[in-house]
Amino acid sequence: MILAGLSLQACRRSRIPSALWAGAGLTLFWLLLAVGAPVIAPYDPIAQDLTRTLTGPSLAHPLGTDNFGRDVLSRIIWGTRLDLAMGIIGVAVPFAIGCCIGLIAGYLGGLAEMLLMRILDVTISFPFFVLVIAIISLLGPGLTSFFIAVSLVGWVSYARLVRSQILVLKHMDFVQAARALGYGRLRIMMRHLLPNAVVPAIVFSMSDIVLVILLGSSLSYLGLGAQPPAAEWGVMIAEGQTFMASAWWISFFPGLAIVGLAFGFSLLGDGLAELFGSRE
Amino acid sequence: MTTSLLEVRDLCVTFDTSRGPVRAVRAVAFSLAPAEVMGLVGESGSGKSVSCRALMRLLPPRGVRMSGVALFQGRDILALPEEELRDLRGTELAMIFQNPSSHLNPVMPVGDQIAEPVLVHEGASRRQARARAAELLRQVGIPDPDSQLDRYPHQFSGGMRQRVMIAAALACRPKLLIADEPTTALDVTVQAQILRLLLELRDRSGLAIVLISHNLGVIAQTCDSVSVMYGGRVVERGSKRDVLSRPHHPYTEALIRSQPESAPLGAPLPTIEGQPPAPSELPTGCAFHPRCPYAQPVCVEEAPPLEETQDGRRSACWRWPELAARSGVTP
Q: What's the pTM?
């Protein structure tokens, strides 16, 4: 249903923006890397080889090795899995929660709306990072805590976006026609309102993925997210920091990977925004 | 009267606004037999659409007060709990609207929109519902229905969209269809096709239709009976032939006289002097008196009741006998 709506919107605009092509290509590259990690990575990402520590880029280790002799390239390739998962799960869950809350608040109105919007106001009144860090430190560091914290805080943007759409949509004629055909509230909300309201939320989720990946690797860098010896880009940057002067490659290449992944999703978001943007 | 499908008595709709209550519909009454096509005529703001939305219970729950009785097959629609109402809508009682473009869901294939009532109300399987949707599209005169099912509303023309909306409304074979200016947004040739389609459906399945229109030509072509509304009230009611050829109310007479067809070629079109009253500022007495050529002091004082005149017709005018005494409309 939602995909049908999207493809419909796409049909109306015959030219697909070049940012979308580039973004989709880059994102696909990272996805393939994550899926094919066991095949593509030349070494075991956590296998230590203490005879070859801190070696610079060479033919055997194109991106060098770290202080435990682990292959940086293999760790980056495996890290794609973790960082992509952080981004995708860290956006999918808040997306789902936010859409439901926005839909309910927008369509039902009344007491439900007031209650949900007050919870939203309270959540928004804290700075995003501060609240996430507070929740993680309450639950104890780790990826699970990270996902819980991001879900608890991240839904607000989606709820606001979807609610504002629903407030306009619910007075549209086709909703009245749906009521005249005897459909219940749930059906009208899920089948008739949501598919019409979800496009801005999807566009926003693309740039949100970038933020969540950056947040995830920053928190891992601070020791609150993924824990060593996990191959995660933020963790790798943190570990390489000590050797910045002598072995720059340990931190540099994971940093580059973060930039590359973020760039892909940013382009994808821009492309989608351009594709749907001039809709109204 | 006992065999009527729908009987509306004393229907009142009042909107609570910031400037006090506004009585949009005042004591509307009419009845409809199975397979009857009734026209509801009147200028904009006369309460036609509000009455019909009240019958479908589509008015917003807040700020609107409704009273009266609307017996549909013996059940009072206005008093039904929400759940029973939902079972009635779409299955027994259906409505189509003026602007088919905005009343269809833009991101849903038309086949799904037509199949949905069947899925919801009859618990049919997807495949049965789809077959039914194709059959319905064929019935409303859309060629090659199977290949149209997966197309979206924006890929259809205005007349085709109205056909799609009719197909969806009739999917569960309702007994009463309320058509709120179904042809106003369409051009004249398409208008005639849609009206012919509605009459065909009536003949085939015994569907009763309430046809709202401000176009007397449309009413003359299609309806069996007519109710004329003015200022939130029904001012005249009767069979189409009687009402349109020998009106018993000055407003009906004025409406007929201002039809473009009734003016001689080259002469300026006759109009009704003045503006229709806003529901918030209704005149005292008979709402039509400021524009009525027959107005007398009593018309300012007191509103005439809608009383039986001749042959089961009704009119709300103090001077109807004088109007009835004349043989027809003198231009």
A: 0.82
